């Protein structure tokens, strides 16, 4: 099932107060008097699919303009999947899209009942609709747009090599920028490496050990207070175990006193378990006091005052303090800085090798880009020949049988994001005339026909479910207008086509005719959209032809146009049925 726009509701947009457009699957034309608001229909569709919001388009006196569209889509198709990815819903194949623009310029969008960024509508629209107004024609005259148009026409043949080129181009730029940065920072890198090497040499010369600063601080404390420590240990030892060399009589040490207490309790311990437990604990205390006294004696013997060692310790601590003042809070941090500095020096020393590697990679990428760019150019030249021939053929059907369209491709010699090609679409209005750029070689009417021919060719190469044209037939009349109507009607056989036109020859080929009617009370002008029946179509075509709805001559001419259009469409149907029977 091909997606299509089923209904559009417009409120507060330009002169349109409120209007509902129920659109047919085939060819729909929108007509109306000048100033009635026909272009607002295209503007509304453009807003619906992510177009630029212009607060000046909001109807005077209204707070906002609102456009809501109902699209028929395949529930299992790509569009439905994209809607689901943003949290929206497609209910029974119907997708609701809504857009509001406030008079202050604020814009909001909804997709499948979910509020989304406006850019999401543009993303979804790529697979659903192509809106073409006269501004789109002007944009197509820009060289960059013409290159993009040719790439779109080239199709799948160009997709893979163009993607490979774009990836190589991106890497080529990255490598070039990195090379430039490394080269310009060579002096800074050399200075940084010298500073790091100096610091690393200073640390390596000192050879600090992890935790050495803590050990030295403790040793310095012991050496500085050696006499006090030895006296304290000796005194404590005497208090615990006594000193037989002191000559003092009657002074009992702690171990002896605990021994007396234990002896007193041992004599009666058998009479009470509680007392026995206390006696055991006294025994343990005695053993513990004896051990402590022994260790105190050994400690007192070990403590010696060594001024030379104290001076050496203080000198070493001063050296480590100098390192911690420069490179870290303690020795552990200094050692960590040294490891990081060594790694950074390796990295900086490796930059020269890195530059050599990047230089080789840059040269390889340059060669690769040249190969890919040449491949892109070849594909574009081939597509340009086909594109020019196809558009020229379409122009013959649009009353420009002697015109020729060609696509000139010149190589700039400079790698760009899309290759080295500069693309320019040219028109030769008649044989012997030089092929000139569209801006110089085509009149207004010719340009409109060229643009329509291009769109028809695009429709065959890259089909879009719905096409919207805003007065693409501007500046055209007579036989050429009839041919434009035929081309649009043929396009509508494979896609939904919505056209805003002022030409009755185009409107006659439509499957559905909508007219924008303008009404006013002298102060306020309002427009609405009305679907015409067969009789209404004849009256509207008569108005477009003669300026009078009830002109007999105009009605006759309108009937003739409708008859020609119906005959052509019937012939196409018959031919299509014949081809279908042959294929089966």
TrEMBL record:
Keywords, alphabetical: ATP-binding, Coiled coil, DNA damage, DNA repair, Nucleotide-binding
Pfam families: SMC_N
Gene3D superfamilies per record: P-loop containing nucleotide triphosphate hydrolases (3.40.50.300)
Keyword DNA repair: yes
Domain RecF/RecN/SMC N-terminal stretches: 6-518
Protein name: DNA repair protein RecN
TM spans (from-to): none
Protein family according to the UniProt entry: Belongs to the RecN family.
Origin superkingdom: Bacteria
Function recorded in the entry: May be involved in recombinational repair of damaged DNA.
Gene responsible for this protein: recN
Coiled-coil region: 348-375
